[in-house]
Amino acid sequence: MPELPDVELARRRLQDWMLGATIVSAKSADRRILRPHPPSILKRSLLGRSVRAVERRGKWLRLRLDDGRNVYSHLGMTGRWLRREPDAPREQAERVRIDLVRDDWPPISVRYVDPRRFGRLVVTGKSFPEWEALGPDPLIDGIRLRPLAQALASTRRTVKEALMDQSLLAGVGNIVATEALWYGRIDPRSTGQALSYPDVKRIARGLRTAIRKELADLEASYPEELPDAFRVYGRAGEPCPRCRSPLSRIVLGGRSTTYCGRCQERRRARGGRRRRA
DNA sequence: AACGGAACCTGAAAGC
DNA sequence: TGCTTTCAGGTTCCGT
Fold first, then answer.
1. Which of A193, A200, A197, A233 is nearest to A217 (CA)?
2. Is A3 assigned a catalytic role?
3. What's the rounded Cα separation, in Å, for the pair A116 and A76?
4. Is A27 a catalytic residue?
5. CA neighbor of A188 nearest in space, from A93, A272, A80, A261
6. A59 assigned to active site
7. Average pLDDT over every residue of A66-77
8. In angstroms, how far is B8 C1' from A59 CA?
9. Phi/psi-derived region of residue A129, left when phi > 0, alpha when psi is between -120 and 50, beta in every other case
10. Is the pLDDT reported for residue A273 higher than 50?
11. For chain A, which end, N or C, has fewer CB atoms within 10 Å of the first or last residue's CB respectively?
């Protein structure tokens, strides 16, 4: 579930729940999610701390604590943050529990639930390489055409694989990339090198549309989980919403990819091969 | 250095 | 019904 729009919604909720609150309990026994630190780090470094800011960059969340340390949270494939009453029972697949108090509120308990355990929770006072390596965030920094065109021109990967590279643009995942290319009418198999500047413009517009729409859908449906409102993702075999031609499914970079072979045009590298010394 | 593919995990859904 | 296979929206590691 978690790509940029999902993580941004998680950020807003965590901000509502935690900003200005003091942590009175923090527990987890999950070595995998807390790696590379031992589970004991949670209680040791969170107890008594208050939360000064809740930030997001790409698919990473960052809680800033009053002692200068940060809590980094990545939702992996199946991670979610939930708010519960302090006496509520443990959730299925609950991996982390943080209880907080705030002057103007009853105490709350925030639970991190993650069946597959691909998520992370890292507490550190040092700089965090995974965060530092992230490229510009489409919501925070916007999408700059020049650098994007430059980056796409210098890779031999397909455009879809390139868009999911977190150092190029932070937060674009399989759904957003798939949807954005459909909006922009670009075949996901196109090579980055083969794209024209107008193509890049269309992709950028597609990314903004896909992200904005997904955010709006998530907001509208909360606290329910919306059924798939995607235009093409997960809809192979169904008619293209634009031209009614059946949608195709292929695998790119190991990820399932849906597109319309009729209205998404493929760009192929022109001319001879190009070499660099 | 860049790329494809497997690995890391669990659970839901589809297939038999 | 119940067992098996497939697939999942993410990242990382390993071999070529």
1. A233
2. yes
3. 8
4. no
5. A261
6. yes
7. 98
8. 19
9. alpha
10. no
11. C
Cα angle, residue A167 at apex, residues A59 and A207 outer, rounded to 5°: 65
Closest CA relative to residue A67, chosen from A16, A26, A125: A125
- Give the distance, in angstroms, between residue A115 CA and nucleotide C13 C1': 22
A251 CA to C16 C1' in angstroms comes to: 21
Angle at A181 between CA A167 and CA A229, to 5 degrees: 105
Place of tokens 């998680």: A10
pLDDT at A266 (0 to 100): 94
* Three-state secondary structure readout of A151-176: HHHCCCCEHHHHHCCCCCCCCCCHHH
Catalytic residue among A69, A255, A262, A267: A255
| Residue A214 known to be catalytic | no
- What is the distance in angstroms measured between the alpha-carbon CA of A189 and the sugar C1' of B4? 15
How many residues make up chain A in this entry?
277
pLDDT in tens, A172-228: 999 999 999 999 999 999 999 999 999 999 999 999 999 999 999 999 888 777 667
**What does the alpha-carbon distance between residue A187 and residue A248 come to, in Å, rounded to a whole number?**
11
Which nucleotide's C1' sits nearest to the alpha carbon of A226? C9
Instruction: Write the pLDDT tens digit of every residue in A105-126.
Output: 999 999 999 999 999 999 999 9
pTM of the model: 0.96
A93 touches strand B (CB under 7 A): yes
